[in-house]
Amino acid sequence: MKMLVAKFTKGAGEEIFPMNKQTPSKSGWNYGQPPPSEPADWIVQWAPEKLETLETLDIQKNICAALNSRLKMRWLIGVERGLVKGCLMDRLDRDLIGNAFSYAVTREFVPDLDLDLISLKFHIVSDGEETFDDEGKFKAIIEIAVTSKTNSIYQLSSGRCFYLHGGIVCCENIEKFRKIWQDAAINRENTESTSTTKASTSGTILTLLAGLVGGFVAAKYLIQKKIVS
């Protein structure tokens, strides 16, 4: 089965191998500043300390929820209250996280997850000083993303199907989720149909009004002409 390779990046996606102690060039991931903006339908931000609680299921359910809700997701671990903080780690930590991510996305998904729909990146956080300390540790933002939308419906092998509703990740069985999705599609169609009807009605009313105004102007002209003659 295809395995993901975690990319360690600085700036705009430049890979760094090996990760020697060095000061990277200017990066958009600056400590205490907002993260670089990228288009996304759903943005998830975790403070650095939440990394210690990260489980395989967290990765699976967020990815599943984004895909089933037809949303592009950007999940940033190491961002607190909208500002870049970074998670302290070393190369071994990075590799462990990468392996855990690969494990999470290559198991449990039904059907098998298309790995071209997702990505994992590590971004070095710049704080104006040397990025790597004497022990080779550094601060990085972990970015898990759903980069494309799909018409497939995903569930985990346990039968759980996750989706986003009102900003909350919800869970149902596949049959109930299909019903929810179908109802939502029907509601969207009805809304679009109503909007079209309203637009058509508005156009008809405007046409009638224009006709009435035109008729009034013509009648007024004839009356004036009769009076003059």
Give an overview in words:
Keywords: Membrane, Transmembrane, Transmembrane helix. The chain crosses the membrane at residues 203-223. The structure is a single chain. The protein has 229 residues and is of the alpha+beta class. The protein is built from three helices and 13 strands, in the order E-E-E-H-E-E-E-E-H-E-E-E-E-E-E-H. The strands form four sheets. Strands 1, 2, 3, 4, 7, 9 and 10 form a seven-stranded mixed β-sheet that branches. Strands 5-6 form a two-stranded antiparallel sheet. A two-stranded antiparallel ribbon has the order 8-11. The longest helix has 55 residues, at 174-228.
Q: Low-confidence parts lasting 5 or more residues at pLDDT below 50?
A: 7-26, 225-229
Q: Report the radius of gyration as a whole number of Å.
A: 28 Å
The dominant shape is: elongated
DSSP helical segment count = 3
Largest sheet at a glance? Answer: 7 strands, mixed
Structural class: alpha+beta
Order of helices and strands: EEEHEEEEHEEEEEEH
The helicity comes to: 25-40%
Note the gap between the termini: 95 Å
Sheet-strand content, in percent, reads 15-25%
The whole-number mean of residue pLDDT values reads: 78
Q: How many β-strand runs?
A: 13
